[in-house]
Write a structure and sequence with these properties.
By secondary structure, the protein is an alpha/beta fold. It is about 35% helix and about 20% strand. The chain is built from eleven helices and twelve strands. The strands form two sheets. The protein has a ten-stranded mixed β-sheet with strand order 1-2-3-4-7-8-9-10-11-12, with helices on one face. A two-stranded antiparallel ribbon has the order 5-6. The longest helix is centred in the middle third of the chain and has 15 residues. The protein is elongated and about 70 Å long. The two termini are about 40 Å apart.
Length: about 350
């Protein structure tokens, strides 16, 4: 049995159906079993081989001997007292954990998934980067977050409407696994989620943005901008020193042109840093020729950070400048702020109880 296990330690939740077919063929099983297993994992959110009741008991026993099926532990679950937002701390078998969030809107549920354990981008207003990067998550570990949320809190028979890869980590630094995860989400034998309901966020990794534009998957791209002044953005986001505003916006323009998709610029509003009317006018000038939408985010508090959120009136005046200059803008509705589940508050930690 040890020889079998040594050859089959792939993360099964990361596998496409055709890859499962190869594995099952090596076990002497018919290829149609691969589709069944894929559906159990990604549509029915099975947690163990024994959950797969349409498969014979003998085959389930063989699968348990041949293949590792990683587990996920719910270390904590917090429900907001302000809205229907729920935050989870999920633990993996190596002892690492990530936070995942379920949010409810008028159109349905959206799940915010983490792509890395920690983050090394060093953005000055974000909790996710505290402690740095520990490791990348596999596509299967991202899919496992989705499955766990469905099992725990989605009404029976209901699926999440949309998904955002905006939890801990820089998704495009974990490029291959994130793209594989999005393809798994979209697969018709899984959740069958439209690419247009999937949003991937980046702090501005230009080469990976260009690579994503060639994938042929029409996902939504959200770019954390926060300033169009290089000096300010250098201070807020160290990645700007490698990919300054000019190269980032050029990439954004090319991405929108190549994919035909509208980008979203995330802009966190920080008192006396990036929230003046002059900042608003400069932003509008820099992005006016990009097919985009601006999402203004009132800064969410992080205990270890000293930045302060802009006042509601300041945010509204900023939005008014953009609107006057023809830039579509939304002030983000805050969800889960009372449980530190809002934008910039998710983190790698094992002390949430």
């Amino acid at each position: 049995m040890s020889e079998k296990n040594d050859g089959c330690q792939k993360d099964i939740r990361s596998c496409y159906p055709q890859e499962l077919e190869t594995i099952l063929s090596n076990m002497g099983e018919p290829s149609y079993r691969a589709r069944q297993i894929f559906q159990w994992l990604h549509r029915h959110h099975a947690e163990s081989w024994n959950d797969m009741t349409s498969i014979s008991k003998k085959l389930r026993q063989n699968l348990s001997e041949w293949l590792s099926l990683p587990t996920i532990e719910v270390l904590a679950r917090q429900a907001s007292g302000l809205d229907r937002t729920v935050k989870y701390l999920f633990g993996f078998q190596d002892g690492q954990g990530v936070e995942t969030v379920l949010m409810w809107y008028h159109y349905g549920a959206s799940i915010c998934v983490s792509s890395q354990v920690g983050c090394r981008m060093g953005c000055g207003f974000c909790a996710s980067t505290l402690g740095g990067l520990i490791r990348n998550l596999t596509a299967g570990e991202m899919a496992h977050q989705v499955a766990a949320v469905h099992r725990l809190d989605m009404p029976e028979g209901e699926r999440a409407h949309s998904l955002v890869i905006m939890g801990t980590g820089e998704p495009l630094e974990n490029y291959d696994e994130v793209v594989r995860f999005m393809r798994l989400l979209n697969h018709p034998d899984g959740l069958g989620m439209s690419y247009r309901r999937i949003t991937v966020s980046t702090c501005g990794l230009v080469p990976e943005m260009m690579r994503l534009s060639e994938e042929g998957i029409p996902v939504n791209l959200s770019v954390s901008l926060h300033s169009v002044n290089n000096e300010v953005r250098d201070r807020l986001m160290p990645v700007n020193r490698k990919y300054p505003v000019e190269s980032l916006l050029k990439a954004c323009r090319e991405y929108a042109q190549k994919t035909g998709r509208r980008l979203t610029f995330e802009y966190t509003m920080i008192t006396d840093v990036n929230d003046s009317l002059q900042d608003a006018a400069a932003l509008a000038d820099k992005i006016r020729n990009i097919h985009c939408h601006v999402n203004l985010i009132p800064l969410n508090p992080v205990a270890e950070r000293e930045y302060r959120r802009s006042s509601d009136s300041t945010i509204q005046r900023f939005a008014d400048v953009l609107t006057t200059k023809g830039i579509p803008v939304t002030i983000r509705r805050e969800l889960g702020a009372d449980i530190d589940a809002a934008c910039g508050q998710l983190r790698r930690r094992n002390d949430l109880r």
